[in-house]
Design goal:
five-stranded mixed beta sheet, mainly beta, Immunoglobulin-like, 9 strands
Amino acid sequence: MNTTLNKPESQQTGAQNGTSRVNYLTPLANILETKDGYVLEAEMPGVNKDGLEITVENGELTLIGRRAPVENRGREVYRESRAFDYRRTFELDPSIDTAGITAKIDQGVLKLQLPKAEAVKPRKIAVRD
């Protein structure tokens, strides 16, 4: 993954869903490179395993996190957080082995392992006599 990999969307995006408009929040994300690949961490508070949709298509990784409905605990006086679902798309580098991507969510943090293809991993060449 390189700097051109990340294609963040605006903080609040809309997608057409039939005739209605659906609003999404862009989750905050960190991307780390390891010797074997990349680790992508995305913050999606309120999302559990059942609310996740992760797809790879046409060189793009799309994350969608749907929040579980929140029970109304009283009359809302003031609100800074939004109850929208999450959506973010990343452009994948061709060196990523998309068949080997794995995902895990724990306490609202989605962690994806994006392995490098074997062809791009460094390898040691043995010298023969």
